[in-house]
Structure to design on (193 residues):
């Protein structure tokens, strides 16, 4: 989460809020009164009010989302990602005891998943159908390890007919691993050196 959050006072007019968003290249602006979190305004909502705001003064408090979906600092990243996906929102204020302590955006969540999956590091990928047996998983792991493959992350991709295990490995030669897995009867869906 971003801990140094740009905020707007509830008494500000929407033109000021839009200027803040443009200046800081943000799309979500928490509304506060002192250090108390009151709500949220989004760039999309404010842009729709720009023309009416030219005719009359519209305050942030009049248009803010008064009960936005929020999380706490203890909320895990998976739960936050599910909330963003379920409600089709771009960010979540992080609130503790009615005080804003941060904001978590889709970009923050994407960054976390990229780090967890090791996507930005040079590596290899191997997609294999293993089956449901724990012994089969252990065998595949041992085959990968015995051919100097080091697993960085593992993704499970449910498919209609079979579950595909996507192994992200440190950069290595996949040919001997693919050959050994094939000899043991495992179906290789794809491999990327």
């Amino acid at each position: 989460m971003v801990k140094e959050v740009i905020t707007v006072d509830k008494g500000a007019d929407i033109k000021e809020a839009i200027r803040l968003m443009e200046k800081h290249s943000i799309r979500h602006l928490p509304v506060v009164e002192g250090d108390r979190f009151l709500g949220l305004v989004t760039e999309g909502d404010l842009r729709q009010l720009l023309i009416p705001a030219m005719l009359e003064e519209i305050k942030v408090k009049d248009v803010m989302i008064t009960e936005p979906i929020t999380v706490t600092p203890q909320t895990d990243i998976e739960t936050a990602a599910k909330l963003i996906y379920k409600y089709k929102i771009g960010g979540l204020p992080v609130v503790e005891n009615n005080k804003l302590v941060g904001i978590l955006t889709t970009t923050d969540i994407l960054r976390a998943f990229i780090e967890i999956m090791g996507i930005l590091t040079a590596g290899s990928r191997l997609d294999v159908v293993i089956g449901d047996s724990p012994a089969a998983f252990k065998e595949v792991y041992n085959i990968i390890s015995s051919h100097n493959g080091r697993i960085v992350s593992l993704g499970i991709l449910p498919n209609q007919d079979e579950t595909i295990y996507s192994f992200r490995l440190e950069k290595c030669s996949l040919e001997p691993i693919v050959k050994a897995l094939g000899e043991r009867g495992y179906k290789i869906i794809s491999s990327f050196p």
Summary: The helical segments are 14-24, 43-48, 50-55, 60-63, 77-87, 106-117, 134-146, 175-183. The CA atoms of residues 150 and 177 lie 11 Å apart. The domain at 118-192 is CATH 3.30.70.260 (Alpha-Beta Plaits). The first helix runs from residue 14 to 24.
